[in-house]
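Tutorial handout. Part one gives the primary structure; part two gives the three-dimensional structure as tokens.
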Amino acid sequence: MKNKMEQKFQKARKLFPHTNKIVYLNSASYCPFSVLVEKAVTDNIKIRLRADQDESFYVHDIQEELRRDYAGLIGAHKREVGLGMNTSFGLNIAAFGLPLKRGDEVLVSDIEFPALVYTWRAAAETKSFRLKFIKSTNRFFDINIFEKAITKKTKVLALSFVQYFNGYKNDLATISEICKKHNIILVVDGIQGMGVEPINVRKLGIDIFASGCQKWMLSPQGCGFFYIADHIRDKINSPFISWKGADWKMNFTDLFKYDLPFFESANRFELGYYAVLNLVGMKASVGLFKDLGIKNIQTHNHTLIDRLANYIKSNPFYTITSSMEPKHRSSIFSFTCNNFPQLHQLLLKNKIILVPREGSIRASIHLFNNEKDIDRLLSLLDAFSKR
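Part two.
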């Protein structure tokens, strides 16, 4: 008899129609939709087709619920969470809004995803601060090198929660302590860990956290959220703002008011209306994470990765390129071999969806995957190694 949690994951898998045909191991790129998201989006389209009701306040209610739900998932207060269009939205608030000036330094890793680097590069060119790269060790962020790179001019460290190509989960607790010691603001790109690796931004001392929801959070593309710690919020002077950043107290019948106060919350940095289809899709999806629990999702994913990793370890044809150290592993697992591009094509032809990244095959395991998925992959890996 399977325990209740296993039954929950089996039930969740049935919400994803793709599981009947393919093995999807690419949530680190973009997610498949569940039938919950499909229903939420199509139901909203039907409302707009009828055009017989004003859904404005309905949308505002959803936004409030999403801020609350995302705050709960990352250990924040709702007032510290705002909705954005992607990870870059929150990163831009940090890069262009923080009081950085000529002579200041912002540190980034030399193995970051371009979304993080280009945002800070543009801000550096605009505000004349220095963008300084920290060298990695074996393609992993090196805390010792980070500490040595700090100077009196260092004001910000911008870093990924989980590295996109090999799944290396950064030791944010230790990194945050170092940042506090040197009065450095810690900005985290959270997209590759959000929803699958537990995080408590307040306990960790993260100052700003940004994440899109189109990957692991199983939501439509073009949506995300950001967290800005209370003690940082009033230091930010965002170069962009909208009328929805002011507190209208839901009274839109008297709009000739131009002196309303801006929100004393992260809502201040949101930009007007967002695509309602995204919002309803996000709401439908986030319920899965609340129901299953991110810690349970992590355990589920890591157990399946262990099944894959044990095979890779046993076959000298393959090499693991992820860290398997408990504090650094994530739901992304990477490995390589001779002719890995050819292997990738073979897997795709057999409806196993994953991607090559930086010289390796990247498999991203999620809540809808199961042992049969992994065994189907292992069978092909074994056959390929014996060619």
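Part three, for discussion. The first strand starts at residue 23 and ends at 24. DSSP finds 13 helices and 13 strands in the chain.
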